[in-house]
Amino acid sequence: MKPPAAGYTLGMQQSFLLAFCGVVVLWLGGCGFESEPEALESGELRFVSGAPIDTLDPQGTSWLIDFRVIECLFEPLLQVNPETLELEPAAAAALPTVSEDGRVYTFTIRPEARWSNGDPVVASDYVYGWRRALLPDFAADYAGLFFCIEGAEAFFTWRGQQLAGFGESGGSAQSLWDRTQTRFAETVGIEAVDDRTIRVRLREPTAYFKELVAFAAFMPIHEASAESFLSLDDRTGVLTTRSAYFAEPENLVGNGPYRLTEWTFKRRMILDQNPHYWNREAMGNQRIVMEVNSDEGNALLNYRQGRYDWFPNVSTSSAQAPDLIASGQADVHTGPAAGTVFYIFNCRPTVGGKPNPLADPRVRRAFSMAIDRDLIVNSVTRLREPTATTIVPVGSIPGYDPPEEVLPGFDPVAARALLAEAGYPGGEGLTGLTALFNTEAPHDKLAAALANMWKTHLGVTVQLEGVEKSAFRSRRKNGGFTIARGNWFGDYRDPTTFLDLFRSNDGNNDAAYQNPAYDAKLAEAAKELDPAVRFGLLREAEAIMLADAPIVPLHQAINLELFDPERVRTLYPNAWNYRRLSAIRVAAPAESP
Amino acid sequence: MGTLIFRRLLQLPLILGVVFAVTFTLVWVLPGNPLDRGEGRRLSPEVEQAMRARYNLDSPGRFVVEYARGAVVGDFGPSLQYKGQQVRDIIAAGLPVSASLGAAALGVAVLLGTVAGVMGALRPGSPLDSASLGLTLLGISLPNFVTGTVLLVVFAGLLRWVPVGGWSSPQDMVLPAVTLGLAPAAYIARLIRLGLADIMASDYLRTARAKGLSHSGALFRHALKVAYLPVLSFLGPAAASVMTGSFVVEKVFNIPGIGEYFVYSVLNKDQFLILGIVLVYATLLVVFNLLVDVAYAWLDPRIEL
Predict the structure, then answer these.
(1) DSSP class of residue B78?
(2) Least CB-CB distance to A470: which of B267, B291, B295?
(3) Does the ipTM surpass 0.85?
(4) Each residue of A551-575: pLDDT tens digit?
(5) pTM across the whole model
(6) Of A285, A245, A293, which is closest to residue A269 (Cα–Cα)?
(7) Which residues have CB under 8 Å from A588's CB, separation 6+?
(8) Residues A348-374: pLDDT tens digits?
(9) End-to-end alpha carbon distance in chain A
(10) H helix count then E strand count, chain A
(11) Among residues A5, A174, A191, A457, which is most buried (max CB within 10 A)?
């Protein structure tokens, strides 16, 4: 007689068989393992990036980590030397000649400059790259940096309006594109005079234009190869570069020291020396391997085991940061960054339909004076950052001396008096205030510390409100806050990279701060040719703004990076994160006993 | 059986359609701006308008139609957050990694779970049983990030038996698979242990024991197979969930899977990526449930489908 359980016996085996088959099928499908790149004997730099590279399109990003690699693949006309912090000619043969009125810059490209496919670098490649930044189609984060060029802003706005109204216009995308190209050539002051000469006409003398040209958004694009990856959307008229151009090693043509060898999104990127690069003798390594590791703890463990030569930009909000800095180890490099951490006050007369007590500058100043910045950097962030009472970080811009005397330091007695003068003695009547911050990083401690100081020294209760980052940003942008966290990092070495933030009509002026005297000072400085006088005017402007206290600066941001100076040489940490990866020399690992 | 598979496959598009509709609605009402760039500079209004038109973000109707049209052929559009990346490429790069890790974790779960469950049932009430209960409770209660970090620090950091995360060889799979497999292993152990206790008390096993079969003989030869049925129904959704990655485990071990997109795509309001990930997940869930049903029918012919 057949035992009743016979079917089940088979079933058990089947179930394991089934599971086994499933596993095998999946494994055959590939586990997605990626073998280690073969290590070079020497001349290789391995570093870790905390986030994946999004794009290698120089005009398509605003991320530091993207720019770091873009600067390896492309070369601008000028570059800042990370060691001396001086501007130097890069693809240009020399620094540009500047006209008497400071409005016309002429650059000459060095004759030996080559693209990675061997083509000579020509002036029109720069015009082509810069034009991309000015086409709203590509949504360049840094289009605004080009607006100092004559006709650039008007062209950008015009194209934007044409695209916005494209659906109703009934015209073809191609004809709009043809008209756009003509308009650019006729109205924008960027011109390829001949193959090696670029002439730029500026709207007004822009003292820091050379600094801008050294910025990664000012990279050239190899017109001949990029052109075949353009596609024009018939419905919207929008032009795009197909993503394969900047993503596939066989498509991307660059003029920098390296060419792209391999890129696996979210994993790693390998760059090898560009055989056509004009200045290969000056290079300190032949290959760069960048690995992505989004977990700080894991990355640190890997770094400690010698997997990476260099750990740039360790997050200062990570749990390890204070201990790393306190450890004083030789491979921990820290220093002030060109950025300021602050809290913003909403300056609008009403918020959410109610009168806004912070519209009164006296209240804002009182709030600022009730803050003990030393306590914040020593006990809250525990990173001992330089405290700040100005928006432009002290010492970040050569020759510029921010007005540190304007915003008084910690003075609770004066703060209470000022608050009483504004009509809120002992904080009475000051209600409905909240400190808004984003929650994806631990910003709550700082917010709590500030709220505590305001409660203790002013008697004002400020509620904490942590929201996720997109809600945070949209509320900050739309004025849906009373007090909010903020920070700003400079893009180029000029005070305006910070001060423009408080122009009445600036898109990033979340405080809605408006002071015609401030705008007038900035406008006056923009026309000034003498650098010292100009900095004087900017200093006055900053003093006007700080006296009104639309923000309360707390401390400077800091950079934190790890590398063994004995092994990784010619790497010079600096506030602006100027890097020249091609110059970094990595000594072979020391013989271990 | 054939009809079952055919019927389920017919339902698949319907289920995906509903999932798509619900997800789309939720995504559309999410606060925040998908074109926003983290700490980057803001887009000018003109650019933003052009981009909204380009990606159909200005018209929910057109977005649904265009997205669905692409999704049918596996094109989920561009990622708004990872500018320059296609959602299809992002998923294609990460899914095999997450899936193979998930498969390994499932193997760990079944193996550990069965062993622990049977150990407990062998001598009910014995110290072995208490140990099995204790271990499973620990497995269920300890969060991934704790077990993961402890394993990483001990076996990769101190002992250096395995690499510190990454994804370049099968060795890299060991720790994350154990971490990811522990919680399901604990569930499986409990299911088996409780199932076995019930079944061992049933009449037909008492008869078998009366006829001279030993306790362990009855357990292994008869009871275990029946006790496995609830495990099987647990394995379907568990497989879909571990094979689509785990945010925590992939982060702790630096594994380039798709787990983190479940979190970041929503935080970044990256509509294209959210929908792509959810559709892939839903498809896997339906397929694994189908597999479980098929296996059920195969294992236990009494079950009508």
Answers:
(1) B
(2) B267
(3) no
(4) 999 999 999 999 999 999 899 999 9
(5) 0.87
(6) A293
(7) A41, A42
(8) 999 988 999 999 999 999 999 999 999
(9) 74
(10) 19, 22
(11) A457
